[in-house]
Design brief:
The complex is a heterodimer of chains A (about 260) and B (about 650).
Chain A: E1 24-33, E2 36-46, E3 51-55, H1 62-69, E4 77-82, E5 85-86, H2 92-97, E6 100-103, H3 115-121, H4 129-139, H5 141-145, H6 156-169, E7 174-178, H7 186-201, E8 205-210, H8 213-217, E9 222-227, E10 230-236, H9 242-250, H10 259-262
Parallel strand pairs in A: 3-8, 3-9, 6-7, 7-8
Antiparallel strand pairs in A: 1-2, 1-4, 4-5, 9-10
Chain B: H1 2-32, H2 39-54, H3 61-85, H4 92-113, E1 129-132, E2 135-138, H5 139-161, H6 163-173, H7 175-181, H8 185-211, H9 215-231, H10 237-257, H11 268-288, H12 311-328, H13 334-351, H14 353-359, H15 367-381, H16 387-408, H17 413-430, H18 435-438, E3 443-445, E4 450-451, E5 454-455, H19 459-482, H20 484-494, H21 496-501, H22 507-532, E6 534-536, H23 542-555, H24 560-579, H25 586-593, H26 605-616, H27 626-632, H28 635-647
Antiparallel strand pairs in B: 1-2, 3-6, 4-5
Helix pairs in contact in B: 1-5, 1-8, 1-9, 1-10, 2-3, 2-4, 2-8, 2-9, 3-8, 4-23, 4-25, 5-6, 6-7, 6-8, 9-10, 9-11, 10-11, 11-17, 12-19, 13-19, 13-22, 13-23, 13-24, 14-22, 15-16, 15-22, 16-22, 19-20, 23-24, 23-25, 24-25, 26-27
Classes of the chains: A alpha/beta (about 260), B mainly alpha (about 650).
Chain lengths: ~260, ~650
């Protein structure tokens, strides 16, 4: 399913009569590292055209949820559906070729490959080599300057740009973003979220985790709050109850100063 | 002048064959992250397969060559990848041991399939040659050089221009991310092993006519390739090629211009020096190579978590061992008693690896060399079983170990293993065959020691004596492990980065554990020689260090009971072989299979099975057992989130 097939989703003020079929569905999903269960039953639905932000403190299970949703961790219980199909235990590369793009936590680049070679790897999801390079260099001209440089020698922000270039060029149906702001300067974070907003505007379903709640809330239209391996609240971003926000975000790693004021 | 040119042509030809082998090594390493010690053994196997096709089966070379290089070798490489896949993500020591196992297994298998006789390896265009600058160049040599150049260009293109080549390198960088990009990591990894295996086969076939079709020569050819690959720092193909040709030339000139007699020392060291050139290059390159960066994230990957028994338990174990040996030795025939005794002595040599490899995480492939030095010292200075001999054995092996340790102290993992391999091979060539070491006929009598007026001359009493020594050393080692030195050792293994942040300098620990282990091996070697009554120049070769390590790893590298199990297994194996002499290849083949158990029991059979047993039948008291201690600290389960915490 490509983004062009999708009907305009919610979040634009009008709720369509019949909600579009979800692209990702987690139903009563449990997951464990060895014998230690870390997700105790997650229910999550991502529909086309929505940006769902998974918020919560450190260790809440956000990244683990994304690991399951990208096929990197098989659930121990419950169902994992992609585009209506039951795919528990599917390989991540199969999902990637089916149009699910995941930018994992940390610097999601190959450090010992040049920028051009990193871009070449992105063609495995189906896009042509030219298109990938064009789209990446158009959005991030700095990558063009560094095309022959090893990715590992670039700054953190440039590496994350390179990683985001995959989300741009792969034209995915679903995009999973794990903490893309981690360890980056606020200015760069702002630039990356501009790209996220641009991709969302094309109608791509986005599921992202973020500890910088403020940054995420600028583009998210739905929010789910996680603590201790459970989703404790979910709803539209603008309806986020203030007490809940205080309860779960105030005590977490949320920065004292909102991001706009820093940048 | 024409002599010089002839040596140059021969040097470039051998260098070209080394280059093909080395490039296969580099490709496998840079595309799968695993250094395939067995690379030469694969080439050896394929050279034998090629011979089988061409000579007894009369398949034309034009058919046989593509069949072996393009079909059989790649399939075999993909098969090897499946074997290695099971232990991916384990510590470097474990993956290294797996490829050592493959190497030993293949040597055993080839010896089993093709019993040693003289075979002439087929060359291309026999008797065809041309003259270049007044030097005769055979077609085979010219083809080898052209093939090497073609492979250099082709690999460069594959790895840096084609998408699958880029994916091969990407998989090493970040396997998970490669999958998230949509590449199939498993398929890419099989492909790179197939390619490496194919290049190994080609190198083996090209060089075989030069070396005769000999299991040992062809397998050890890989050491030359290691040296060349190290010149290229395991990544840089052009440098690898330059290194290979350099080594080829150096060797060829050494044949042409080194004197043939060495004066006082006899001719052996000079001949040995000639043979040892690649090894010396390897050793030198390892020493000047820039150090690897300390990896903090590695610590989460070591899965080994074996408890240390208390003093009471280790003493109890020792008493049980001595009692069992005292009773059991009465049931064995004279021949089998000696065989099991030799196994027990080998177990003692393995015991010397427990602190170094099991607790310190440093893989050494030269333990038999130190044992040999011990046997040499005992034969020389232990006349009549004098204790001075035993002291000399410990002192000599320990001193040599200390010197080697000074050189290799900064090396870790693979580099340390290769450096010790180089040292052992140099000793194989230069020391053990020399008349001043083990006499002109290559074997000397090694006396059995007499302690405090108690002479343990008889076989049975000597075996019991060995078990007493084994028990005492085990108790001592465990005491050491529970103390400060043991904690430092464990810290070295777990995380050098963490030690650095604590302000701990590990240099003294690393230096002393190597020398200590060498001294222990020297003592064990003296007793091993005593058990055999004779020690021969071929008893302590580098290759014999490999089954020792493998059998120890099978039993459990971090436990003394693992060493006992490993030693007795080798003893039992030689009992079996004594009944069925045709199965002698099993002595290599069976230890080669040992690492296969690592996928299931990464800590070895003894701790692994004990853990299973205690899981199934929990002790009611819940105190004092290894497995229960392990239960309380589930390292395996905690590893993934911990790794995240470290990476994040």
């Amino acid at each position: 399913m490509r983004s062009s097939d999708l009907s305009p989703g919610p979040g634009l003020g009008t709720v369509p009569p019949a909600p579009p079929a979800p692209v990702i569905e987690l139903i009563g999903l449990k997951a464990a590292y060895g014998r230690i269960e870390v997700l105790h039953g997650i229910d999550l639905v991502v529909t086309p055209g929505t940006v769902l932000a998974l918020l919560g403190p450190n260790g809440a299970g956000k990244s683990t949820t994304l690991k399951v949703a990208s096929g990197r961790l098989a659930p121990t219980e419950g169902c994992f559906h992609v585009m209506g199909r039951h795919v528990n235990g599917i390989a991540p590369d199969t999902l990637a070729r089916a149009g699910l793009c995941t930018i994992p936590e940390g610097r999601a680049v190959f450090p010992n490959l040049t920028v051009l070679e990193n871009l070449r790897m992105m063609t495995y999801s189906g896009a042509g080599r030219r298109d990938v390079e064009e789209r990446a260099f158009e959005r991030f001209p700095r990558l063009a300057e560094r095309r022959r440089q090893l990715a590992g020698t670039m700054s953190g922000g440039e590496q994350q740009m390179l990683a985001m270039a995959r989300a741009l060029s792969a034209e995915p149906a679903v995009l999973l973003l794990d903490e893309i702001s981690m360890g980056l300067a606020p200015l760069v974070v702002g630039e990356l979220y501009e790209v996220v907003g641009q991709i969302a505007a094309e109608g791509v379903a986005i599921l992202m985790t973020e500890q910088f709640a403020q940054a995420a809330l600028k583009v998210a239209d739905q929010v789910a709050l996680m603590t201790h391996g459970r989703i404790v609240a979910a709803g539209r971003a603008d309806e986020l109850p203030s007490d809940l926000a205080e309860a779960y975000l105030g005590g977490s790693a949320l920065p004292a100063t909102p991001i706009q004021e820093l940048s | 002048m024409s002599g010089f040119l002839t040596f140059t042509v021969i040097g470039i030809f051998t260098g070209a064959a080394y280059a093909v082998a080395a490039s296969g090594l580099v490709v496998t390493y840079s595309t799968s992250g695993i250094f395939n010690i067995a690379h030469g053994a694969v080439g050896m196997l394929m050279a034998f397969v090629y011979w089988e096709l061409v000579v007894p089966m009369h398949v034309p070379q034009v058919v046989a060559l593509p069949l072996v290089v393009l079909v059989l070798a790649p399939l075999f490489g993909a098969l090897l990848e499946r074997v290695v896949r099971g232990v991916r993500g384990n510590s470097l020591a474990v993956t290294l041991v797996v490829t050592v196992g493959i190497m030993v297994f293949l040597m055993g298998a080839v010896q089993g399939i093709w019993p040693a006789t003289s075979r002439v390896a087929p060359t291309f265009f026999v008797h065809h040659s041309f003259r270049l600058l007044g030097v005769s160049v055979t077609f085979h040599q010219a083809i080898t050089i052209l093939v090497a150049v073609g492979i250099a260009v082709g690999l460069r293109f594959l790895l840096y221009r084609s998408r699958v080549g880029i994916a091969m390198r990407a998989v090493v960088d970040n396997r998970e991310l490669a999958g998230l990009n949509g590449a199939r990591p498993a398929r890419v990894a099989s492909l790179s092993w197939a390619l490496g295996s194919s290049l190994a086969a080609l190198a083996g076939i090209l060089i075989a006519p030069q070396l005769q079709l000999n299991v040992l020569n062809l397998t050890l050819l890989v050491i030359n390739a290691y040296a060349a690959a190290m010149v290229g720092r395991l990544r840089n193909l052009p440098m690898t090629f330059a290194g290979a040709v350099g080594i080829g030339l150096l060797q060829s000139y050494a044949v042409g211009y080194l004197p043939t007699t060495g004066g006082f020392w006899g001719s052996t060291p000079i001949q040995g020096l000639r043979l040892s050139i690649p090894v010396l290059v390897l050793f030198a390159v390892l020493l000047v190579l820039p150090q690897d960066r300390i990896e903090g994230a590695r610590l989460a990957l070591t899965r080994t978590a074996v408890g240390v028994p208390s003093l009471q338990r280790s003493i109890l174990g020792g008493v049980v061992l001595v009692g069992a040996v005292a009773v059991g030795s009465g049931f064995l025939s004279a021949g089998n008693l000696v065989r099991m005794g030799i196994g027990l002595a080998l177990g003692l040599i393995m015991l010397s690896l427990v602190p170094l490899t099991g607790w310190g995480g440093r893989v050494s492939l030269c333990q038999m060399t130190f044992a040999g030095l011990g046997a040499f010292a005992m034969a020389r200075w232990g006349q009549g079983g004098s204790v001075i001999g035993l002291c000399a054995a410990v002192a000599l092996a320990g001193a040599v170990g200390a010197v080697v340790s000074l050189f290799v102290v900064r090396l870790r993992g693979l580099y340390l293993a290769l450096a010790t391999m180089a040292f052992a091979t140099a000793m194989d060539n230069m020391f053990f065959p020399a008349p001043f070491a083990f006499g002109f006929d290559g074997s000397v009598h090694v006396p059995r020691p007499s302690l405090l007026g108690l002479h343990v001359g008889g076989n049975r009493s000597f075996v019991i004596f060995l078990s007493v020594v084994f028990a005492l050393i085990s108790v001592g080692l465990y005491a050491l492990r529970r103390g400060r030195f043991g904690r430092l050792l464990a810290a070295t293994k777990d995380s050098e980065a963490a030690c650095a942040t604590l302000g701990l300098s590990l240099t003294a620990t690393k230096l002393s554990v190597f020398a200590f282990s060498a001294g222990l091996a020297g003592l064990a070697g003296a007793l091993f020689g005593g058990m055999q009554s004779v020690a021969g120049s071929t008893d302590f070769l580098m290759l014999q260090s490999l089954p020792i390590l493998l059998a120890l790893v099978l039993g459990g590298v971090a436990t003394c009971s693992g060493a006992l199990f490993g030693g007795l297994s080798l003893g039992a194996l030689s009992v079996v072989v004594s009944y069925y002499p045709r199965l002698s290849f099993l002595q290599l083949l069976a230890p080669g299979l040992a690492p296969l158990t690592l996928a299931r029991f990464p800590d070895g059979l003894i701790p692994g099975l004990l853990g299973r047993f205690q899981q199934a039948f929990p002790a009611p008291t819940g105190r004092g057992s290894d497995a229960l201690d392990r239960e309380e600290v589930p390292v395996v389960e905690v590893a993934p989130p911990l790794a995240e915490a470290v990476n994040g």
